[in-house]
Amino acid sequence: MGNNEIRPFGWRDKLGYAMGDMGCGFSFQLVSTFMQLFYLQYIGIKAADYAVIILISKIFDAVNDVLIGNLVDTKRLGKKSKYMPWIIAGGLILVIFNVMLFAPITSLPYAGKYAWCLIAYCLWSIAYTMVNVPYGSLHSVITSDPQERVSLSTFRSVGAALPAIVIMIILPGIVYNKVKNPVTGIEEEILKGETLLPVALVMSVVAFATLWGTTKLVKERVQREDEVKNTTGITAFFSAFKSFFTNRAMVGATIASVASVALFNSTMALNNMVFQYFFQDTGKVGIAMIGSYAPMIVFMVLLGKLTAKFGKKNVIVTCMLIGAISGLVSLFVPISADMTGMLVYIVCLMGLNVGNAVFQISVWAIVADCIEVSYRKTGKSEEGSLYALYSFFRKLAQGIGQAVVSWGLIAINFVEGENAVQAPDFGDKVKNLYFIVLAAGSLIAFLSMAFIYNIGKKEEAELAAGVNASAKAE
Predict the structure, then answer these.
(1) CB atoms inside a 10 Å sphere around CB 305
(2) Which of 88, 196, 283, 403 is most buried when burial is the number of CB atoms within 10 A of its CB?
(3) Taking Cα atoms as reference points, which of 154, 160, 162 lies closest to residue 301?
């Protein structure tokens, strides 16, 4: 199809791209929010063993992601599109393994539970990569205009937020029961693990429907001709690593993403535990979404104008510093276990989430800029491979985050198992642990974006003007 036959960039592309991350999010958010709770509290996996499972599965992902990324770059499943057939095929497989991950395997011996969790999570990771890599690679070929990329990134953030809101607000009323603690006599929230299987099935079907919507609404406009032929096999593996790690901007953005995903997005289980054990009311866990998403909603409106005036890097660095300072202050703010305390808790989360919200909205535009810089430097059309590596580090970050949560829970003496009784001061300890983790995420992301990432406002203008800025951005 010639360029003159392709409609101009517009609302259909924005809506379709948002639907794609909505589809990914219904699977990713369910897994990141409830998988750890499911296996620790319902299936009975020990926290230390669960941390090992996550780390092993992410090492497996290291090879899996790059190989699938190279397949997306070099193997077309259809004639009309490089990416859409991969999204459909991966979406269908994701339905199966998403459901498998939440199977109620309580009757298996401990070794069987351990093996099931590890294998199911590895298979889920393959399926998710088959969807997420081609979907993420789309960003750099829908448009080459930096401000249009920012708008795509903003709409992608909207698509990612909707599943999180559904999962955080609606699901707690479905998956928790109130049970009286025999030690304290206080009613506590207990996870109903058997409910997560039908929930996973429904979420998976909805996810596939939205991914299908992406393939119908989004158009690929940027056609890149390889100046250097793409390689395959083990050569491709090392070629992608070289392109990735010699791209300073990509390394800086990736470190910030690892901090954001590991210490923000992948630690929602701690927020659930704050409401479960500190406020002792999981029915109001959705209120905490205000703290997480209020800054995001504000910056969705303002970010385009702010980045156009100051540049994406300057806006992110400033807001990340605000988040880090807010986290340290929150540790010393008195919070009571009542509605007033909840409101104070939300205000603290708002300050903590300022930087992460700005980064999450703009990160996909940043990655597209990094891929553009790499193409201009190497002459290789490696969108799939580069995005796969970036995606791998994000998923590795998810594993790191869950491992950090597990180790943190061990440090504050969490008791595993269904109907387990926690110490009276556990709620206060888990609240402080959550604040510490979020503050650390903001600080690491701030340092990486301030001192490693090097596509400033000037380089963004050069990319927009079609100037080869790779020498300056490297």
Answers:
(1) 9
(2) 196
(3) 154
Q: How many CB atoms lie within 10 A of CB 442?
A: 30
Query: What are the sequence ranges of the domains in the chain?
Result: 10-217+232-473
Q: Is 50 exceeded by the pLDDT of residue 3?
A: no
| Amino acid at the residue 333 | V
**Beta-strand (E) ranges in 121-222?**
176-180, 187-191
CA distances from 120 to 39, 53, 124, 215, 296 (A): 12, 11, 6, 27, 33
Of 440, 471, 472, residue with least CA distance to 458? 472
What would the pLDDT profile of 424-466 be if each residue is shown by its tens digit? Answer: 889 899 999 999 999 999 999 999 999 999 998 888 777 766 6
Tokens of 161: 């937020």
Cα–Cα dist 296/304, whole Å = 13
- Which of the given ranges, 183-197, 281-295, 296-310, has the highest pLDDT on average? 296-310
Q: Which amino acid is at 4?
A: N
CATH superfamily assigned to domain 10-217+232-473: MFS general substrate transporter like domains (1.20.1250.20)
